[in-house]
Amino acid sequence: MANRYWVGGSGTWTDAAHWSSTSGGAGGASVPTSSDDAFFNASSAGSSFIVTIPSNDCPVCNLSLQPTQPMLLRNFSLAVHGDVVSNSNLSTSFTRFNFFGHSMVQAAGNSLAGTVLSSGNVDSYIELTGNTVVQSVFINDGSFFTNDYDLTITDGRLGSYPFSSVYLDLGTSNISVTGSDNSNLIQAIGDWWAREATITLISASASDTEFFGGYDGIEFGTVIFSNAGVGKTFAIRQSVNFETLEVKPGVTLKFNTDDMAPPFHELGTFIANGTNAQPVTLRGTTLGKQFILSKPSGTVNATYIDLKDSIATGGATWNAVGGTNSGNNSGWNFLPPPIPTWGFVDSTASAFQPTLTPGVATMSPTFVSSSAAVYSPSNTMFTSQGSLVDSTADVFAPVLTQLPPPPPPPTDWEAIGKEDEKVYVYKVYKSDGTFIGIWNDVRDPLMFTRKINTPGTTTTVILARSPNTVKEVRASMTTEAGEPITTEDGERLTVTYETNNSVGEGTDVDINYKVDVYVHYGDFNRLVTEAGGPLTTEDGEYLLVASGAPSGVRVFSGTILDYKSTYDDQTGVTVTLASHGLGLSHELVRSGETTTVSYSSQALQTTLKSILDTNPQVMSYSTDSIAVPGVSSAFKFELTTKLEAIERIHEQTPDGWYWSGDVADNYVYMQPTASTPHHVFKKGYHVKSLDLTRSKEQLINRVYFIGGEVGGVPVFKKYEDAASIAQWGVGLHRIVDRRFTDAAAMERKAMKLINRFKSPIYTTPITISSARYDLESIKEGQVIGFSNYDNFVDDLLLQIVSLSYEPTAVIMQVGDVLQTQHERIEEIGEELQGEQYQNLPTAPV
């Protein structure tokens, strides 16, 4: 036996020049044999290096892979007759370790993530000595022991095949297996001990089926089918048994019904809890042939599960709560959907219930000394008996009267506990943020429309008021000198007074006032234990949890753009509210008074955030509202509004990206179109009818682009998609934009347009009722899918490009949008504006 040390950096395993008899010594020693130990250490190379295995089963005894610099071991296999130890500087790619003796594997972190562990003969005895990450494990002969350590398989399988004799002992290990397309994640052939292990299966395939299989009768501990998502499927090949079988939301799990006898699975525990948007789907592999799930006792409560060709038996009670009976099922009880809860609380916990009693409550505090701390009153409080006060007068504690909690009168408090009823609260503020009051005379339902790639929208509100209406309003309490009276915290004290004016100065309707609209819906339910018993405080009062938004959620925020008073048979005031995103078109990108601002090449999200942070308005961004496109670009903005700048930046994002100004949270969003649906709508339940149109009217696959001048000559480019032209014919489009001189930027804009419209597009309107779905969770730009159509529609993923909101329904336009004549006129206007702003001074003089 000899020691061999790798030297000289990158090279081939069989090159003797890279092997030394001493660490860091001269090369030229013999290549390791099955009796020699191989070492990779700090002296193996000066910096990072690559070792290539040129053929299968290059021999070695003990293998020490512990360099201090990055090392990559790649290609083919090593015949290992001893132990393997690695450190975190190692990475492997398409490498196999075939073990031919009693071997210990000590892997650090992800060092063996690209390695297949396999047995070389019947004498192989492989043991893990710590948590291990590998590409795959496959045992042909011999034994494999996890020794209760965690095992992560990154892209392959945990499998065996008994060429002679095979034994796998998984102990109590947590095992995670991620597979690629159409792979055998678990292939349990031979003698397995898996009763105490937890195995989680994760699909990395785009659409194919991932398999789980083994000899009939093998008993597994906990097996979890996870992360399949829409369009991804698992299949169980044989009649194996499970102590616990868990199926995660969105997973389709098939049972092998191709054989003559139906597959039978004995279960200790069965967990299948889908969601309304991501149900669990159980099927057989042959349509019409049933599979059998057996549990000897107890109750199974599976939520949002779609069943077909299933037999539930064994003595247990099988409940499909909120489930879908797709036919040929027996033994299941299909029950209504579960009542939403926020979770359970320990029945011994100390908790207190808030007082929820509506109505007017009057408080009469005692007087306090002038040196006492005075705290800010709540916005729902107002002072009475107010008037101008002498600046030298002593001010005593006011009598505070609490108004009813929202929603304000007229308030149907019974409606707050009903899922299908909504109450809207319109809170009004002055332009400086001072709270004025609440509109309680709105007589029409809230309606507005949002679109992607737009800054926001407007809506109209009709108020039932006239000059004869007495209106109570608030104003700041001041001294005779006009100075506001405040608390020690600087909060202004307010007084109320009445006016006969319905609109204008001194009322709650005036130009540029801010209005936030909140919707209250849902329910407060009693909090219960897992056994169903109510939880109470120490005083015996019930604890409550909320479903929906009984405390309110903001759905629109904006300013008063205009108002109109009508004095006719039916009097009233019509108010137009504009979301804050429209203000982006009234502020220039500028630095001080300089209206020509240049940004050097940098990440698009950095430029966008800088524009929103400079001369800030209401519209801003959150930590995750602006994603990272992975594109850098330089910009020069000449007398350009923030809205135009956002559109310019969006033009440079990758294909499929969109932006919007959210009318509820006042954030600017720039995101890629999702590859998985945010919502899945079922035929006959969510969607009554579907008018799906496909058209090539807007086909664009050839673009001529005229940019600005470089060296006195305009940049003139042509872009096209040959495959689209061959299949659909030519769809011509021209762009004239003198602001573009960079060829890469021109190509991004042109190809983004081509990739969007190079194929005929699907469009369809969809109406979703509030009785069937939480409307406030649906946003423009999100992606939807379909189910229960049993044709190509179930495979469609369509983006919400426009959404019309009403209290009882949303009407969505999904797919893509044809360019309207109005939008084309705006595009031509932008091109002309680009011509006009050539050679513009950097600032007005």
Number of helices: 5
Count of distinct strands: 62
**Unreliable parts:** 376-387, 404-419, 817-833
Average residue-wise pLDDT: 82
Multimeric organization: single chain
Percent of residues in beta strands: 35-45%
Shape assignment: globular
Largest sheet: 30 strands, mixed
Radius of gyration: 35 Å
Q: Helices and strands: which structural class?
A: mainly beta
| Gap between N and C termini | 88 Å
Helicity range of the residues? under 10%
Describe the structure.
- By secondary structure, the chain is mainly beta.
- Helices cover 7% and strands 41% of the residues.
- The protein has five helices and 62 strands.
- It has a 30-stranded mixed beta sheet that branches.
- α1 packs antiparallel against α2 (642-651).
- The longest helix is centred in the last third of the chain and has 16 residues, at 821-836.
Please describe the structure with a list of short key phrases separated by commas or semicolons.
845 residues, mainly beta, 30-stranded mixed sheet, seven-stranded mixed sheet, 62 strands, 7% helix
